[in-house]
Structure formats: structure tokens, C-alpha cells
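Lesson 9: reading folded outputs for more than one chain in a single document. The general rule is that every protein is listed as its sequence immediately followed by its C-alpha cells, and records are never interleaved. Here is the first one.
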Amino acid sequence: VMVNPMHVNRTKELDDNLQTKNDKKDARVIASLIRDGRFTFSRILTGVEAELRNGASLRSKLQEDITAIKNRMIRWIDLYFPEFQHLFKSFGKNACAVLEMTPLPMDFDGKSEEELIQLYKNVEGLKCLSVSKIQKLKVLT
């Protein structure tokens, strides 16, 4: 069986209202709670339920990692390529292609729009970045 730790704490406070804490006192309080029937049966998850719990915790961890990576990317973009934020609001395919192939504003120097289009076509999963976006990027940098 399981006893809620908050119940143990509150019951201990009701019994003697002292701030002291030791294992003997906790054991006595837990035993009295079990004797009074204030406990729950522990439930060990198996099968699909266990997999769902593991999947949910993995998803939560992945979301935290993605957020941390995005924050790092935003920090570096703010330091080295602040114009980027004016054109791309999120990290979509186009934005990631620009960061992959031309991560710094100086990468645009001396390159024509056609060269940049060819450069961005090499990115897997991207058809083509629009000419207007490329022109805006060149103007901003």
C-alpha cells in the first residue's frame, strides 16, 4: 500500500505540532494511517499503460530539448544574423535551409540570386526559396 506523504506530514503536525522529524515518528504516523485505512493500493502499470506512460514522459523530455535548442538558435541568430528574424518568424523548412547554407550575413556577399537559389535547392526536402525572400535577405544583409 501507499500513504500520501502530504497526509503523513499533516497528520504528524496534528498529533504533536512539533517541527522535529525522525524515522521513528514517521513510521508511527504511517502505521496509524494504515491502521485507520487512509492509504491507497499501489498500481503497477503493465502492457499498453506502461508504454503510454513511457511515451508521454519521452515526449515531454523531447519537447524540453526542442525548446532548449530553439532558444539556443535564437540566441545565436540574435548575435550573428539579427536580420533573419525580420524575414522568418519560425523555424520552417525555408528558414532552416537559409541557416544551413548561409548561416552568416557575409555568406550573401558576392552571390547572385541564381547562385543562392541553386544553393538552397541542394537542401533536402526544399523545392525552392522564393526569389522575393532572397532579394529581401540580400537587402537586409
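And here is the second record, again sequence then C-alpha cells.
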Amino acid sequence: MKDIIIYHGSTQIVEYPEIRVAKYNKDFYFGFYCTIMPEQARRWATRFTGKGIINEYLYRPNEKLKTLIFPEMTEEWLDFIASCRLGEPHDYDIVEGPMANDTIFNYVQDFVDGKISRAAFWELAKFKKPTHQISFHTAKALTTLEFLKGYEVNE
């Protein structure tokens, strides 16, 4: 796997990424989340105040790290996200795959809460285009990132 540029949307420059434990569990549990899509990072950065910072990193994959990649939304992806959202930790250094965007997130939450069936989730989700996320879950994983620059963006 070759080096790639990835992006993190924030309200500040994040020269030294860290893993923060938040109030709510995310798709792939607690971690430092980035994307290969600059427009998605812009949405993350501007979602609260209409302006923010896109942080750009060089990601150098390390084959020695335990990595899980979901190329697309699958049954395994859904089960993994449901497990993480229920607060169950995992032992991966890095997890990459589709993001449950706002609409998909609602379907995932309904599935996790038992409000819709697995079949209903897939029926609702099949016309939605997922986005991309790569999350870093350990200190070793964060060493694969090299900060390049941060720049201000607006909605």
C-alpha cells in the first residue's frame, strides 16, 4: 500500500493527533478520524459554526499494524459498526471503510436499537452513497501520520 494524503476536519489545527474518548461511540469506536475526501473533511470542519480547519496529513501505511478495511457496506461492516456503537471495543490499530453519513447513521441507530430489521436496513441504505473514513485507534497507529498543513475553510 502506498502513502496517501488524508484529511481531518476540525475547529483547530491538529499538528499532533490524539485519540479522544467522547460521550458517544462512533462508527469504529473511539479514535482519530480522517478521510481521503477533502469535501467530507470540509463538512466535518464547518458543521458547527460554518467555518473550520482542514488538517492535511501524509499517511504511511504500516503492514505491522492490525488493520481492518471495509471496501464497501457489507453485513460485516454493519455488524462491526453496531458493535462499536454499543460500546464494544476492538483491538484494531486502524479501521477504514464507508462512513454512516447522517441518513445511514439514522438507519444504523434504528438497527442497533432494534427498531428496524437487518433486511429493512439494507433496503433503506441501498440508494444512499456512503462516504469514507479511516480511524486511528492506538498510539502506534498515529505514528503513521505526518502533519503537512492546516487551512481555514468556510461552508
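What the second record shows: The first strand starts at residue 4 and ends at 10.
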